[in-house]
Description:
Elements: H1 20-31, H2 42-51, H3 57-71, H4 74-79, H5 82-88, H6 95-113, H7 126-134, H8 141-151, H9 161-169, H10 179-188, H11 195-208
This protein binds iron/sulfur cluster (SF4).
Amino acid sequence: MSSNIKSTSGLECSGSNLSPTDIIDILGTEYGGFEHARRIDPIEEVVYTILSQHTSDHNSTNAFEKLMRRYGTLKAVARADVSEIAETISSGGLARIKAPRIKTILNLILKKCGSLDISFLSKLPLHEAKAWLRDLPGIGPKSAGVILCFSLGMPAMAVDTHVYRVSKRLGLIGPRVNVEDAHEILENMVSPDQVYPFHAALITHGRRTCKARIPNCAQCKLAYNCPSRK
Ligand code: SF4
């Protein structure tokens, strides 16, 4: 196993004896590997990401499908009445916030780019692509990471609640590192081709084993090297 990982934030981390590569390898074996699964058009990913904020995958998928069934294209969504959009996506929760956000974002992109094609982002340096997305209302580091990584295949880390919790428990990041800083720290720990499997390993482990309320340390393949094991 590799030696201790150091946080680049200046905040001390509690110290795991596992490197990110160890974690990817061990959890990849445990969960059957981490292939890129979902790849949708980048602008669809933007809308899906807004819909997925503060709700489950099931609810956001349902809301996205209803939206596309009703309007057919996202260009039509951009023209639609905002209260009608809210009614359509109500199953995804927070519809009165998400509907105007989606409409505003689509119209901003149409104004900036002349179309809803944002695939040009994959040609930009990573930090510029992130900054472009984060200029859009409601797009934070996690949403930008999801859009760039999942849809455009770029090496951007997305830190959701599972990734954040597992990283802290494993001592990859210090206890006082905030979620925004965690994006850069975790992203910089691995080579670009490892960013997606690293994200997938941590999120899968958080969902299946290292759960929020009661982590299943007895069954955890990382337990021997985990400073938080119970
Ligand atoms: S040993 Fe427990 S706390 Fe540590 S990663 Fe495994 S499940 Fe999480």
